[in-house]
Design a protein that fits this description.
Layout: E1 26-30, E2 34-40, E3 48-49, E4 52-53, H1 55-71, E5 87-99, E6 108-120, E7 124-135, E8 138-151
Antiparallel strand pairs: 1-2, 2-6, 3-4, 5-8, 6-7, 7-8
InterPro entries: ApeP-like_dehydratase (IPR016776), HotDog_dom_sf (IPR029069)
Protein name: ABC transporter permease
Organism: Aequorivita iocasae
Length: 152
């Protein structure tokens, strides 16, 4: 079931990243196994290289978007301020990444991620997610990553 309150979510409350490293502008949809996010690439983005959003920025965007699928389970459903918990996540492996196009400053990209597997140890959650990034409905990035997520 999709969360009807996603328009009220300030994504910076749920990710440990802050400007200039925050690579998600807003959450469009989220449920227990998937997420869709939006990122507007501003002129002052630190991952711009010759006016284009770099490969590193695209991978970081996909990682931040994907981590929301598992990260949301550490918060209560009505915790729209993100005050109920603090999380840290790490990319433990980039299993696959295919970059087909670099977007440019001023573009807005949509990243969709889906949970492939999850294992909770009690202290750390290990998970694998696939993500796809789109520019105007055209696929520009496809990736699969493993993450470790834990409470701090």
């Amino acid at each position: 079931m999709k969360n009807p309150d996603v328009s009220n979510i300030d994504v910076s409350n749920y990710l440990p990243h802050r400007a200039p490293m925050l690579m998600v502008t807003s959450v469009l949809e989220i449920d227990d196994i998937s997420v869709a996010t939006k990122f507007h690439i501003s002129e002052d983005c630190i991952f711009l290289k010759e006016g284009k959003f770099s490969e590193t920025g695209l991978i970081e965007n996909a990682a931040q978007a994907a981590s929301g699928v598992v990260g949301q389970s550490f918060f209560e459903k009505d915790d729209l301020d993100g005050t109920g918990n603090k999380l840290v996540g790490y990319i433990s492996a980039i299993k696959k990444v295919e970059i087909l196009q670099l977007p440019k400053a001023g573009d807005t990209i949509i990243t969709k991620a889906k949970l492939l597997s999850r294992f909770d140890t009690g202290e750390v959650t290990m998970c694998s997610l696939e993500a796809q990034t789109f520019l105007a409905e055209k696929l520009i990035v496809s990736s699969t990553m493993n993450f470790l997520i834990h409470e701090v």
